[in-house]
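FORM 7B: Structural annotation worksheet

SECTION A. Query
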Amino acid sequence: MHDSFLLHRIADSLQRICDENRLDTVRELVLDVSTDSHIEALDLKEHLIELLPYLIDKNTVITIRKTAIEEQSTVIYLLKGDSLEK
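SECTION B. Predicted structure
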């Protein structure tokens, strides 16, 4: 896949952000990607469930917005989740 490197970088960044903010579940994720990107929400969700099943599940809502940003880059616009501190 053309965007496989970007998919892995998204997973790594998501893991780091969740660790830093003590999130144990991601409920909603909105990402901006390049208009030239082939990343689709369903493909990203399947990839993240495979790599981060403890953070992402079938109920996680993922939205991909195509915008005029640099290729092979992404912006995490929104991340909502549940905290470890309950």
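SECTION C. Observations
The helical segments are 4-20, 41-51. The first strand starts at residue 23 and ends at 34.

SECTION D. Sign-off
Analyst initials: ____
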